[in-house]
Amino acid sequence: MANTVLITGASKGIGAATAILFAENGYDVIINYNSSAESAILLEKSLKNNGYSAMSYMADVSKSNEANRMVNDIINKYGKIDVLINNAGIAQQRLFTDITDNDWERMIAINLTGTFNCCRAVVPSMVNRKSGCIINTSSIWGMTGASCEVHYSAVKAGIIGLTKALAKELGPSGIRVNCVAPGVIGTRMNSSLSVEALVGLADDTPLGRIGKPQEVASTSLFLASRDAEFITGQVISPNGGFVV
Ligand code: NAP
After folding, report:
1. How would residue 1 be classed by pLDDT, with cut points 50, 70 and 90?
2. Phi, psi of 48 (to 5 degrees)
3. Torsion from C-alpha of 172, 176, 179, 185, nearest 10 degrees
């Protein structure tokens, strides 16, 4: 029986690259999306056309009823979720004093509450099976803080705290919980940055470039693998040396 992976926010960017890599490595892949149905369904079709197992699933992870429904439907269809990758997220650059109530609440709802909702939905079945792997997505800005991204930095730091606490609570049940904290990666999330800003970020990176979505995907594949069986509660940061 193949392993099943649920990747939230997999319609594009890092999530889509992760879906492709896990499919290529024999996983049954569930591609969660919220608004980008077209991209998610296209990815599902392209994986299936290449002989892989994939299903796209619409759910807004910030809503607990939608996260619960998604997890229940997947377990009914596949029997289990072996790996949960909480990747769905939004970012925003804004002066601290310009952050509105809505900006703050939306940032928390999608990034942090979304991660909480999906973990809480999936954990009972993992505990029953005494097996499972959860990979949450933070950011280097959750480790160092970023100017004009106080709300983003706060939720990404919160995800590190959630990961460490949950790893301690679930370790005795045979479940590992880790976190990837990518550096600057070339996705739509950074499309609002100017070319000069992106060149500046690459120059400030010891390896001299920004990262590729596939490089975050391969970090997650490692964390889900048997090679990482003794790793839990850790923050692994593919960032080209930007933060050391
Ligand atoms: P992206 O290309 O903008 O993709 C974001 C994904 O999140 C999309 O698939 C989007 O799906 C999904 N999403 C947003 N709101 C959602 C919701 N309410 N429910 C379900 N899915 C939702 O961004 P990315 O760069 O790949 O980022 C992926 C993750 O990596 C994020 O958590 C981000 O914070 C983190 N990260 C990114 C970077 C970077 O430099 N790119 C660096 C560090 C960390 P829909 O379009 O279908 O709504």
Report:
1. confident
2. -65, -40
3. 180
Say whether 235 sits in a helix, a strand or coil.
strand
Q: How far apart are CA 197 and CA 194, in angstroms?
A: 5
pLDDT tens string 188-198:
999 989 999 99
Pocket residue to mutate for ligand 1, from 7, 8, 14, 61, most atoms within 8 A of Cβ = 14
Residue 223 in contact with residue 180, Cβ under 8 Å?
Answer: yes
User: How many Cβ atoms from other residues are within 10 Å of residue 171's Cβ?
Assistant: 13
Nearest to 164 by CA among 189, 186, 181: 181
Q: What is the pTM (predicted TM-score) of this model? A: 0.99
183: which 2 tokens?
């550096």
Average pLDDT over residues 23-31: 98
Structural Rg of the chain based on CA atoms: 17
CA distance 86 to 114: 8
How open is the CA angle 109-67-94, to the nearest 5 degrees? 20
Beta bridge partners of 136: 86, 179
Most informative mutation of 69, 70, 90 for ligand 1 (most atoms within 8 A of CB): 90
